Amino acid sequence: MKAVTLGGAMVDSIALIDDARIERMTMRNAESSFLLLEEGRKTEALEISQHCGGGAVNAAVAMSRLGLDVSTVIKLGQDQRAEVVLRKLADEGVSTRWVMRDGRLATGAAVMIASHERDAAIFTFRGANTMLCAADLKADMFGADLVYISGLSNESADCFPDIVERAKRAGACVATNPGIRQLTSRSSSFHAALSDIDVLALNRAEADALVPQLVGQYGEGGPVIDLDGVEDCPELILRGLHSGGHEMSLPRLVSALCESGVRQVVITNGGDGAYVGDQTQLSHCPALTTRIAGTAGAGDAFASTFAAWYMRGNDPVLALKAGVLNATSVIAFADTQSGLLAAKDVETQLADKQDQLVARSWAMAA
């Protein structure tokens, strides 16, 4: 099966800092923590390493290891970082046929500071990732079974509706994992494209960001899951989604997105696990316990694995479990790709960890 990924390419520099060498401050009345860097002082690192990253590259590597024939549509600069990305793609068997070089801006880069719970603070230079334009899109790019669109940066996000339309017109399964900046700064064009999206993958913050525009059409609140006798209820079923003073239940949000045309809505929520829903059923799979070295790239691993497994005709709940497994493997490493699993390893773990991957499903209200 053929897949093409579109979005960002980065070269990540990762500094691992011992907890004792950097202070962390956690807000008491908000869900925020801060790593504090002392001005004018050198901080000893446990290790500093360089890796390839970026949503489109992470997804391409993930799908290649899962056995798909993958190409990627990215923009790189005319610099040494671009060569690093190209070598990585070649090593992973990802076609670079649609990789573009542009000398006006350098290849994207990020610096990650990982300490304490390893949820890294990230400094980002988006560079050439911002320069994808309509003229770059060619009809042949979309001749694939699966078109996967990761977060698009700045002006490149203007291409999103055109990419979705071209992919759907070509008969591809369209999956997207948009970034929160794309959802908030270009919400109208994003919502207009929902009717052509097969798989929409979000994290909790991104799902929250969709609420203000959805409530105008579908209303606040909404049906809730009958929790009679349910122990350890998944967090988002209890909490729902909220932003800008508006609230929606999880079933209402999923139903609204599906009524807009999305076939499967997938939402991750960190240690709470992940959810998948359509107009008939909502399911939850718990997170697996593992040693966390870094959380960057977990969302890319989850979303691309779910899309690949689902496109192959698997039940959405099985695809959900496969995504959880690959994301769990990724967070055991500081970078975004070292933990990505081969298809045979995902299949083996699906069989071996059945007692840990116990999904629960609820019927959606009619």
Question: What this model shows, in words?
Answer:
A hairpin with a 6-residue loop joins strand 9 and strand 10 (121-125). This protein is an alpha/beta fold and 366 residues long. The longest helix has 15 residues, at 204-218. Helices cover 31% and strands 24% of the residues. The chain starts with a strand and ends with a strand. The strands form five sheets. It has a nine-stranded mixed beta sheet, with helices on both faces.
From the structure above, extract its key features.
alpha/beta, 366 residues, 31% helix
Assign the structural class, choosing from mainly alpha, mainly beta, alpha/beta, alpha+beta, or little secondary structure. alpha/beta
Beta fraction of the residues? 15-25%
| Poorly predicted sequence stretches spanning 5 or more consecutive residues | none
Described by strand count, sense and barrel closure, the largest sheet is: 9 strands, mixed
Q: Can you count the helices?
A: 11
Which strand order spans the largest sheet, edge to edge or round the barrel?
A: 6-1-11-12-13-16-17-18-19
How many beta strands in the DSSP annotation?
Answer: 19
Q: Whole-number radius of gyration? A: 20 Å
- Share of helix among residues? 25-40%
Bulk shape = globular
Distance between the termini: 36 Å
Mean pLDDT: 93
Offer a quick outline of the entry:
With 366 residues, the protein is of the alpha/beta class. Helices cover 31% and strands 24% of the residues. Strands 6-1-11-12-13-16-17-18-19 form a 9-stranded mixed beta sheet, sandwiched between helices. A 4-stranded mixed beta sheet has the order 5-2-9-10. The chain has a two-stranded antiparallel sheet with strand order 3-4.
